[in-house]
Design brief:
This protein is mainly α. Helices cover 88% and strands 0% of the residues. α1 packs antiparallel against α2. The termini are far apart.
């Protein structure tokens, strides 16, 4: 939940910077958004890699009844 609250704060900050800031602030707002996107993509990739690993491990487990 803390991560979600931080994301909200970052999004609000980026929005203000992009809509109201000078060119350097607009760039900083853009950078905030890009970092968030990169972090979210890395989180999804790590999750997918973990799930793939678990599925492979499950395939190697003997099926017992």
């Amino acid at each position: 939940m803390v991560d979600e609250l931080q994301d909200i704060t970052d999004l609000e900050t980026a929005l203000v910077m992009i809509t109201e800031g000078a060119s350097d602030e607009k760039r900083a707002g853009y950078d905030i958004l890009q970092r968030m996107i990169d972090r979210k993509k890395a989180t999804v990739k790590a999750f997918e890699d973990e799930m793939e690993l678990r599925m492979r491990e499950d395939e190697n487990e003997p099926f017992l009844f």
